[in-house]
Amino acid sequence: MTTVDDLAGHFGPYGGRFVPEALIGALEELDAIRIKAQTDPTFLAELAELHRTYTGRPSIITEAKRFAEHAGGARILLKREDLNHTGSHKINNVLGQALLTKRMGKKRIIAETGAGQHGVASATAAALMGLECVVYMGEEDTKRQSLNVARMKLLGAEVVPVMSGSRTLKDAINEAMRDWVTNVETTHYLLGTVAGPHPFPSMVRDFHKIIGEESREQVLALTGRLPDAVLACVGGGSNAIGIFHRFISDPSVRLIGLEAAGDGVETGRHAASISGGSPGVLHGNRTYVLQDANGQTIESHSISAGLDYPGVGPEHAYLHDIGRAEYRGITDAQAMHAFALLSKTEGIIPAIETAHALAGAMQVGNELGKDAIILINLSGRGDKDVQTAAQYFGIPL
Amino acid sequence: MTTPLDDLFVKTRAENRAALIAYIPAGFPSIEGCKKVIQAFVDGGVDAIEIGFPYSDPVMDGPTIQAAADQSLAQGTGAKEVFEALKVATDAGVAAVVMTYWNPIEKYGVEKFAQSISDNGGSGVITPDLTIEESASWKEAVEKIGINPIYVVAPSTTDSRLPQVTSRCSGFVYAASLMGVTGTRTSVSSGAPDLVARIRTTTKLPIAVGLGVSTREQAKGVAGYADGVIVGSAFIKAILDAPDEATGLTAVKELASQLALGVREGR
């Protein structure tokens, strides 16, 4: 099994394009230019050079031996995307799309952000390449992630707090789509995850699949064999698809996505779209969605702003349905426990998003035992979460 | 077999004028209030009514319709209330359609949705985020039930794509006058006549223009080149700006009658 999308961006019954007609032209232009870029040596060299000299790729692998004692003694290998410039995997996609933006002759990018990581990465790429940048961020999230708001402003971006709906990531995407419909001639929508209308799920995956390509080589070099399981947190699912993709055709490798279960999937206060949602259409694609009987989106809940999204990328929906990947829920409490544990056992403060994957590794490690090798995408660092974590653990600021 | 919407455009073409199409979300300003707005539309001389299915994530809508949708959803509006409002409109003797984002249709059941439109006297459905590429199940349902599928085309729709979209339409073609979201504008985009002219080369269907029309003068201007004039946000604004329901309903009726004059003055 290799790439599973068709030319119209379908993954089985999922994906596709459900957007106002006004955007079709821009989506087709983007699709044509990204397909051309995939085989253009100039583009590939330009992106590789940025990876090497700006992002700091390849990112390293760290073996977490002390943390592993809490994960059934399995070998725990961390793919350190947190060490990338700007502190998360998001930069991989952003640099790729920013280069495409320049190729399209557009001067302005817009982006949505939840935790602020994608917003910061977008603002960074815009600064580097001389593009105007507007970031839409739910008002609720601007409060939870005020440090990242300041970072974006320092980088020269305009941050627009979104006051509609639940005032989180979902509504930031709505507002970015409205901006795009209005300004599509001059503006590229630099979508930050593997959701949205075709070609975004495929394109964003392709910019992140380097994570899995690098780590597959690195794990083979380090251990002499493939990992037994690859784990990543899943909100929209970009870091997960990035590390999963190269392993899809390795049947012995289990792919496990950890969704944000908030207070618990059974409470209804969660962001676990696959574990607790149903197929529907949201933000331009068919996928698993948190929705009510009338097809209205239900607000998601998670301590992690970056996972607080009521949908998921369509490729994950498909990988779930065909049984190639497994998806589990991790509660806020489980994630925060893993957050503290990695900090204290390894000296690495992870993003709260990433902590969901670490909590998953504690479960999976105990299930598989000490002979297992578990690869985890350490997708982001936790500096931005210090305030939230301090509040959670009662540390006075 | 023709729908009331098909019949309406035969009539307005015979009268050499444009049709006035008014939009209101079901359940706005309240479940009962919406029914009174529909009556005010009829009393003011509206030719056809679009009942909006309020949706949690309306990416094609500006702040005015978003506010109306939020207010409606807060009162629990769902498919049942949408079809009730549709029936109020069709019982009042006007052609009526539902405008909805795709997910509520998919959740309700695609064929069942088309059937409920027909059962309540509705003529068709406007689907602003259903692309023709994703419309196979919808095409099958509307053809089986015999209602009008109405797609939106935009100024950015290319000449090569236009006939593909308009050939999927019946009833009318919805021409979005500008690149943007719903809402009142001080002037109707100068791109609208050009878009309508481009659509005419692809279809004999009536063409209705929406986005940004709010005054009699604007309606008159659009009626000069289009078969239908669609007004939404201006009515909602009139209701939101009114101090009480009765004042709002009076304002809606007055605006409708002004617009009804406008669509008769264009040619």
Automatic annotation (TrEMBL), chain B:
Biological or metabolic pathway of the protein: Amino-acid biosynthesis; L-tryptophan biosynthesis; L-tryptophan from chorismate: step 5/5
GO cellular component, one term: cytosol
Residues the record marks as active site: 50, 61
Record EC number: 4.2.1.20
CDD domains (alphabetical): Tryptophan_synthase_alpha
Keywords tagged on the record: Amino-acid biosynthesis, Aromatic amino acid biosynthesis, Lyase, Tryptophan biosynthesis
Any one Gene Ontology molecular-function term assigned to this protein's record: tryptophan synthase activity
Gene3D superfamilies with a match to the protein in the record: Aldolase class I
Substrates-to-products reaction catalysed: (1S,2R)-1-C-(indol-3-yl)glycerol 3-phosphate + L-serine = D-glyceraldehyde 3-phosphate + L-tryptophan + H2O
HAMAP family: Trp_synth_alpha
Family note: Belongs to the TrpA family.
Self-association and partners: Tetramer of two alpha and two beta chains.
Function, as annotated: The alpha subunit is responsible for the aldol cleavage of indoleglycerol phosphate to indole and glyceraldehyde 3-phosphate.
UniProt-recorded name of the protein: Tryptophan synthase alpha chain
Species of origin: Candidatus Planktophila dulcis
Gene: trpA
